[in-house]
Specification:
4-stranded mixed β-sheet, about 35% helix, Adenylosuccinate Synthetase, Chain A, domain 3, 10-stranded mixed β-sheet
């Protein structure tokens, strides 16, 4: 059965680890949206792997990995990521394929990203500054450059010079740094040469693999609440992070997806600006003191809070989530009491779904249900029935609130600290 994994919160739910676990039963892992603004961390024994664009399935010998046309790719970053994998003894040739239709993140996109964010002052989005948004903007404006263009020197040169001239004019007007077209051409054509053996039509490739009855695992980046349409707009990413978005970004029809798995933490976290109804500085301080909740891509400390049942129920509905994989349960091991938001209060109204208007979401007050903590170490537990009784009660409450069963539980960063329910 093909499986689609989405983040049920604001990203950083531990999807990389869940993909690594699920890939044991899959032949192919497909990344079909986002860019290197996302990071997946996977521990295998004592080794830590941090991946930004290459699918986590690359860590499973023999697994085929695809980067689809819905992604945006920084070729220089991708080349370094591939070389880093090679140094760690991981082979990519014949296993990793990149869509010729995926759009290219250029240096001038980073200039635009950082410049616009700096100029936003009190209205910052909290982007990574990696140029992801401006790349998707160029894609929608039909002035973007695609990966396949790296293999056509003449076409690529004309496109880059035209766009560099336009962006440099804007940069000079705003006092931002400018880009040298010749250096861009030199660096990117060199990267294109390195990547040439990886570039193909991944939409055709994935459908050929399905026809051969290969099992496909779709690896979502970011999370549902960062979706450009369904998320906490405007504090969102620039791609569709829901299950439907993963289909459009891959070229595989929705009726070919067998099951949707939602990844969520046992609490809530987010990076960057925007509303966060269940945010708790006490929870953030506790987790940061444990060395947890720092971004894999940026290193930024994440904002943290209680589990938000309103948001994960919403995520379950719009993604069609069949089952959940819950991570970081052990992060709550020391707490005497726990809370889950089961609704919001907005003025004299009770809401069971997040409002679309951002000012309303800022004004929402969570309605909590309180649970007793288990105050014992769960990191060595390998089955649901051996979890402390209060931990079982907590997980069962999450299932009831979210409307889908929890099938995977993670109690630590390592591969073996994960078990099925």
């Amino acid at each position: 059965m093909n499986t689609l994994l989405v983040g049920a919160q604001w990203g950083d739910e531990g999807k990389g680890k869940i993909v690594d676990v699920l890939t044991e039963k899959h032949d192919v892992v497909f990344r079909s949206q986002g860019g290197n603004n996302a990071g997946h961390t996977v521990w295998i024994g004592p080794k830590k792997y941090v991946l930004h664009l290459v699918p986590s399935g690359i860590l499973r010998p023999g697994c085929i990995c695809l980067i689809g046309h819905g992604t945006v790719v920084d070729p220089l970053s991708l080349v370094e990521e591939i070389k880093g994998l090679h140094k760690q003894g991981i082979k990519t040739k014949g296993r990793l394929f990149i869509s010729d239709r995926a759009h290219v993140v250029m240096p001038y996109h980073r200039v635009l990203d950082k410049g616009r964010e700096a100029a936003a002052k009190g209205k910052k989005i909290g982007t990574t500054g990696r140029g992801i948004g401006p790349t998707y903007n160029d894609k929608a404006s039909r002035v973007g450059v695609r990966i396949g263009d790296l293999l056509n020197k003449q076409k690529f040169t004309v496109s880059v010079k035209e766009r560099v001239q336009e962006v440099n004019k804007l940069a000079k007007q705003n006092g931002w740094e400018t880009v040298k077209a010749e250096q861009v051409l030199k660096d990117y054509l060199s990267a294109g040469k390195f990547l040439s053996g990886y570039i193909t039509d991944t939409a055709v490739k994935v459908n050929e693999l399905v026809a051969k009855r290969k099992k496909i695992m779709f690896e979502g980046a970011q999370g549902t609440l960062l979706d450009i349409d369904c998320g906490t707009y405007p504090y969102v990413t620039s791609s569709n992070t829901t299950s439907a978005g993963l289909c459009t970004g891959s070229g595989l029809a929705p009726n070919r997806v067998g099951k949707v798995v939602g990844a969520l933490k046992a609490y809530t976290s987010r990076v960057g600006e925007g509303p966060f109804p269940t945010e708790s500085q006490d929870i953030a301080d506790m987790l940061h003191a444990l060395g947890r909740e720092f971004g894999a891509t940026t290193g930024r400390a994440r904002r943290c809070g209680w589990l938000d049942g309103v948001l994960i129920r919403y995520a379950a509905i719009i993604n069609g989530i069949d089952e959940f994989a819950i991570t970081n349960l052990d992060g709550l091991d020391t707490l005497k009491t726990l809370k889950i938001a089961v609704a919001y209060r907005l003025g004299n109204k009770t809401l069971t779904a997040p409002p679309a208007a951002i000012e309303d979401l800022y004004a929402c007050k969570p309605v909590y249900k309180t649970f007793k903590g288990w105050q014992s170490d769960t990191t060595k537990i390998r089955s649901f029935r051996k979890l402390p009784r209060n931990a079982q009660i907590y997980l069962q409450a999450v299932e009831k609130i979210a409307g889908a069963k929890i099938k995977i539980v993670s109690v630590g960063p390592k591969r073996e600290q994960t078990f099925s329910v």
